[in-house]
Amino acid sequence: MSDSMVDAGGAADRAERLTRTIRDQSFPNLKPRDSATLILIDRSETVPKVLLGRRHLRHRFMPGKFVFPGGRIEPTDRMMATLTPLHERHVARLMQRVKRASAVKAAGFALAAVRETYEETGLMIGKRAEPPIETPPGAWEAFAKQGILPDLAAVHFIARAITPPKRPLRFDSRFFAADISAVAHRVDGMVGPDSELVELVWLPINEARSLDMPGITAVVLEELQDRIAAGMDYEHPVPLYRMLHKRFVRETL
Questions:
Q1: What is the distance between the alpha carbons of residues 56 and 149, in angstroms, rounded to a whole number?
Q2: Neighbours of 146 (CB within 10 A)
Q3: Is the dihedral of CA 190, 195, 52, 107 positive or negative?
Q4: Do 232 and 225 form a contact (C-beta atoms < 8 A)?
Q5: Which ranges of the chain would DSSP assign to H, the alpha helix?
Q6: What's the pLDDT at 5?
Q7: Can you give the C-alpha Rg of the chain in angstroms?
Q8: What does DSSP assign to residue 248?
Q9: Assessment of whether the complete model's pTM goes beyond 0.85
Q10: 157: phi > 0 → left, psi -120 to 50 → alpha, else beta; which?
């Protein structure tokens, strides 16, 4: 379904707004790299809040912008065990329009979002598990040290977006969301003046959209609002934003 067929909550103009934010497309064309992002939601009060971090000004990619924790997929992500699997509806959608699609690869996208959230914020999404916990090398070893396994049943796939051609960096990004209650442990000292994220903020979605952020971040916040209003229903459509004929289109997976 294209963006012209979307009718709820003003979603029809989201792709058009992204088109208006397009910048210089004169770079050599690159294949998009798979990446994953996680939006943490605090619904303990009447108005839900989301967590965003401000990127360091020295970063080449989106310096100083407010973003969700996230980054590139690592080969070890699909090797990490989980306490609970990703919902089958999310798995099916993550396998669409993917080369060599598999349930393991789909879970790897969600696991990458969980890992990146820990690396950038110190927050571990998961539940306590009985030892011993075996993990691949790297950041996942910190989960084993704390006796935590990722809980993918708490993670929702809410959007996908592909950077336009001929940009200096290109990503095929999957956006996930989870409630703050899914955080099992916090490691301090991961955010600060010398870190990838220099500060974290919790804000209501409407207030968060006023921050200095990439256009796709603002659009995904609107998609999240729609999903929250739908009760985080597994059947709620998952949008895919991509460029077609020099304009963004909004399709559903």
A1: 30
A2: 16
A3: negative
A4: no
A5: 14-20, 88-94, 103-121, 140-145, 205-208, 215-229
A6: 43
A7: 17
A8: E
A9: yes
A10: beta
- C-alpha distances in angstroms, 123 versus 95, 131, 137, 191? 27, 20, 19, 11
CA distances from 143 to 96, 117, 135 (A): 30, 12, 8
Residue ranges and CATH numbers for the domains of the chain are 3-252 (3.90.79.10)
Residue 7 confidence (pLDDT) = 52
Tell me the mean pLDDT per 10 residues along the chain, length 253.
46 87 87 97 94 85 88 96 96 96 97 97 95 91 96 97 92 97 95 91 94 94 95 96 93 95
Measured distance CA(105)–CA(94) in Å, rounded: 9
Name the helix (H) or strand (E) containing 54: strand 49-55
What number of other Cβ atoms are within 10 A of residue 71's Cβ? 20
Q: What is the pLDDT of residue 232?
A: 96
136's tokens: 């691949």
Q: Which residue has the tokens 């990722």?
A: 150
pLDDT at 9: 42
Q: What is the pLDDT of residue 244?
A: 93
Burial of 148-161, coded b for 16+ CB within 10 Å and e otherwise, reads: bbbbbbbbbbbbbb
